[in-house]
């Protein structure tokens, strides 16, 4: 293939890729704080219908049934009534690697008020656990294995990392695509708890 044909193919692929992203509208169908779907104005009861606060219709969190690193089956329903943060991660994702210690710190910060779950995407128990062992955070939160990548697919995942902030009624309050700093994590948890 000559250079002109190769360049033409690369340009066409890039146009199709960016066209797809634009057509999806950035963050896709799930609610996010960034697009205003979950802004404080809509969740603090300031909009009223017949004297009652009108809250947005949040998407329900997708159920899952996955093994933890000790082989125990864990379901989302195990945590009804509690605030749950679910992070989709992998060892090959540099942003995920940076975030995991912050998520462990988030669990320590809030203690029993939240459940922090990190779901590994399609990597072996050995690879996942040795990675968290090296970071010294294996005991700090709940790690689940998703060998078929079902959870990531169920949330319409297309970036890494992806994190759901789920309230006690299992509503997705925030669907964050991309990395976060610890201060942002704390702020988002507080917005659900308060």
Automatic annotation (TrEMBL):
UniProt keywords, alphabetically: Cytochrome c-type biogenesis, Disulfide bond, Membrane, Redox-active center, Transmembrane, Transmembrane helix
Pfam families tied to this protein: AhpC-TSA
Domain of life, per lineage: Bacteria
Protein localization: Cell envelope
PROSITE patterns from the UniProt entry: THIOREDOXIN_2 (PS51352)
Gene3D superfamilies: Glutaredoxin (3.40.30.10)
Primary location recorded for the protein, binned into one broad class: other
Claim: GTP-binding is one of the keywords in the record: no
PANTHER family assigned to the protein according to its UniProt record, in alphabetical order: THIOL:DISULFIDE INTERCHANGE PROTEIN DSBE (PTHR42852)
Annotated Thioredoxin domain residues: 55-194
Transmembrane region(s): 6-23
GO cellular component assignments: cell envelope
GO biological processes: cytochrome complex assembly
Upper lineage: Bacteria, Candidatus Campbelliibacteriota
Species, as recorded: Candidatus Campbellbacteria bacterium CG22_combo_CG10-13_8_21_14_all_43_18
Disordered: region residues: 30-56
GO molecular function, one term: antioxidant activity
Record protein name field: Thioredoxin domain-containing protein
């Amino acid at each position: 293939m000559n250079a002109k044909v190769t360049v033409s193919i690369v340009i066409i692929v890039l146009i199709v890729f960016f066209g797809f992203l634009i057509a999806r509208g950035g963050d896709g169908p799930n609610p996010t704080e960034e697009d205003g779907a979950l802004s404080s104005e809509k969740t603090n009861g300031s909009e009223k219908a017949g004297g009652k606060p009108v809250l947005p219709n949040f998407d329900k969190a997708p159920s899952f049934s996955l093994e933890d690193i000790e082989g125990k089956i864990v379901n989302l329903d195990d945590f009804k009534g509690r605030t749950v943060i679910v992070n989709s991660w992998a060892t090959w994702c540099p942003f995920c690697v940076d975030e995991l210690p912050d998520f462990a710190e988030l669990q320590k910060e809030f203690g029993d008020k939240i459940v922090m779950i990190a779901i590994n995407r399609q990597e072996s128990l050995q690879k996942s656990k040795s990675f968290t062992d090296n970071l010294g955070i294996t005991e700090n939160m709940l790690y689940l294995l998703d060998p078929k990548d079902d959870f990531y697919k169920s949330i319409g995942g297309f970036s890494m990392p992806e994190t759901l902030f789920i309230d006690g009624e299992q509503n997705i309050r925030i669907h964050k695509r991309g990395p976060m700093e610890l201060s942002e994590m704390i702020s988002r948890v507080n917005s659900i708890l308060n």
